[in-house]
Amino acid sequence: MVTEEQLAALDLTLWLGSTERAAEVDFSNQSTISRRHHKVLRQFGIELNRTKRQLEVSGDLQLLDLERQVHQLARLKRRLGLRLQVPFWLQNKPGVVPPEGWSMNPQRADLSCTDPVTLLREHVLDACLATPTQIPETHDDLFILELHNRPIHLTLLNRNDQSESDLEDRFQRSLERGNLQLRLMPFLPASCRERSQEWFEELLTINQPERHKTMALRPSPHSGQSFQMAYLTPEMRAAQPLPWQVDQNFEPYTYTEHLVVMAQHANEPAVLALLESLQQQLGQ
Length: 284
What we know:
Layout: H1 4-16, H2 19-26, H3 30-44, E1 47-50, E2 55-58, H4 62-78, E3 82-85, E4 102-104, H5 116-121, E5 127-130, E6 142-157, H6 164-177, E7 180-182, H7 190-207, H8 209-214, E8 227-232, H9 234-239, E9 244-246, E10 253-262, H10 269-282
Parallel strand pairs: 3-4, 3-5, 7-8
Antiparallel strand pairs: 1-2, 5-10, 6-8, 6-9, 6-10
Helix pairs in contact: 1-2, 1-3, 2-3
């Protein structure tokens, strides 16, 4: 019903969040992307809307879904134009290198994919690397492979090149005074930000139980200059270098990187090639 280029214009826009980014991946320009995806919207009688987190299509999507499945099967059989969502921190040099036929999202610190699994189920994506917070509870339709485990450390921002002991002392004082600030890196998906916020509030509650009683979990604006901390894996720390110092006094959380594809496509040669490549690069 629509051409490969027209549907790709819409789906790249949905995936990457703008016609500008879609044009970058498509080696095209914004006006071409916009013209093509509007043809798809008119053909299927649907609308493209922006929510707080992402772009979405609305209307009767049954015919669009069938069309996407046809185009996706063509990509898989030809092993060409396949789409892989990779988080920013795994694109840092040397970074993940997809096998032939696969392309990734641009490496941009301000770009994160809120819900890659939904895009996978909608046949917009062909595979994705998903965080634990992005894996749905019900996933019988998915093939999920654990690639590697990484520690998520409580890290302290050491702007003044302090010694480890001095930095730790300052952190403890800031924790006691309530002037800690959780730094949420721009490349973290929304679900990871929410999980970090939960850990941060738990940290405040454990160390300052009286704050929990009053529900005043936020640092006081009158408690002096805030002290910044974050919850990051080694790859996340390296992706956007800042003078982070791991606090060894806190037990790290465990982070698992997952490759997710539709179960019905798990044995496609293109998917098997991707699986083997990622296991060699990340499976450790």
